[in-house]
Amino acid sequence: MTNKSEVFISVDIETDGPIPSDFSMLSLGAAVFDQTGNLLSTFSANLETLPGASQHPDTMEWWSKNQEAYNATRQNLIDPKLAMEQFTTWVKEQPGIPVCVGYPVFFDYQFLYWYLIHFTGDSPFSFSALDIKTYASAMLDLPYRKSTKKNMPKHWFPKDPHTHIAVDDAIEQGKLFCNMLQENRKNIEELIKARDELHWRHELDIQSLEHSKELEKQKNEILAKIADMEKEE
């Protein structure tokens, strides 16, 4: 059994369509954070498109409104297989058990997992990934569909801009998750402290009650002795 702590690898991707295989991952960005929220390392790669894949018209219409970010995904392109091999090596070099984190994690991880399995045959994250939106739903006690960023506390959010550059957005959402994680841990610590204090007070009440019972017992014994002495007289 390993004694390593988990490290959180925030992943963000850019694509030209809604599903892998039919469409391509254009860019992959990742940022790894330790348990205290320190940024340890980043990864970034722009990928060549898949042979025979298409471009979804809705996605490309969105890109046409964010042309600068799209152009950034088409620079310094590398083969998808090489990108996944480099990414896997980078993940394995991190100082802890890797946990993939995303927002929403399903979209990013479905592409990432498909690419990893297709090109390397394995995933360093196994089958699982942590969804920030689900984590927020649990923390805020809100229905999942209402656990959107606009309903999240403002102090959770870092000041980093959302650029649609994969590695920038991975850093931004990683900081968001770490802020949530630290607050949740603080809340749990306060609940444990309050529970322990209530338990301590309860123990004091029990001790006080037992002491009162003991005093009452001693009182009754003294009264009984006095009564016996009066009978003897």
Description:
The protein has 233 residues and is an alpha/beta fold. It has a single domain, classed as Nucleotidyltransferase, domain 5. The chain is 52% helix and 16% strand. It is built from 6 helices and 6 strands, in the order E-E-E-H-H-E-H-E-H-E-H-H. Strands 4-3-2-1-5-6 form a 6-stranded mixed β-sheet. The model has no long low-confidence stretch (mean pLDDT 89).
Quick description:
The protein is built from 6 helices and 6 strands, in the order E-E-E-H-H-E-H-E-H-E-H-H. It is an alpha/beta fold and 233 residues long.
Poorly predicted runs? none
Assign an overall shape.
elongated
Task: Please give the largest β-sheet.
Answer: 6 strands, mixed
CATH fold call: Nucleotidyltransferase, domain 5
Main attributes?
single chain; 233 residues; alpha/beta; Nucleotidyltransferase, domain 5; six-stranded mixed sheet; 6 helices; 6 strands
Write the layout of secondary structure elements.
Elements: E1 6-15, E2 25-33, E3 39-47, H1 57-64, H2 67-73, E4 77-78, H3 80-92, E5 97-102, H4 105-120, E6 130-131, H5 132-140, H6 166-232
Parallel strand pairs: 1-5, 3-4, 5-6
Antiparallel strand pairs: 1-2, 2-3
